[in-house]
Amino acid sequence: MPNWVTNKVSAPSHVIAAIVSSDDGRVDFARIVKFEGEFPWDGIYADAETMAEVVVGTPLSSNPLLDSLEAANRARADIKKLNDESFEQFIQMLRNFRKVGFLHSMDFARAKWGTKWNACDSSADIEAGTAEFDTAWSCPVPIFEALSRKFPEDVITVTYADEDIGSNCGTFRMRNGEEISSEIAPSWRDMTDAERAKWKAFACEVTGRDPKDYEDEEA
Description:
This protein is α+β, with helices and mostly antiparallel strands.
């Protein structure tokens, strides 16, 4: 399971309305940046994805450990060993890559949304100009950049915090797709004790967690 990141957004009402589905009131990233390919499966066969990566020449990971693992997997890839459904996924991935440059919706989401899934547990108050939602692993900065470019005269304020309290959190403001101010937590290992206390308190406030639950944690 991923770490979940709480995101809180403040902007003029028409900006918030642009990311909220009129059907169910949920925040929907596809309203801003939509995947134009097709992938009608709920899951992804790893062997289909590996085979597609071989065909389209996807670069190996920049992480040395992942690099060697991916290289080994691709060396073993064999199209004749794909089961029928995996083969169909492989073919669809190639169609998607030819059409939109991405193998599947998750591949697209990582690049264009900055997170592998759409917004979860979302709520919005359009009249108040606020929205809140969770994302997997990271704050979806590319979505906010695209939303900001759509409304270049308006300022969007984002506050976010990882459930790993004190790390991967901060706040920033954007106009016309550019960051105009920010205060982001440094790497945990680079923080002083005072900074760790500050960012723990910040993250607890954003996520609604009780700071007392983290008082006994080692610095």
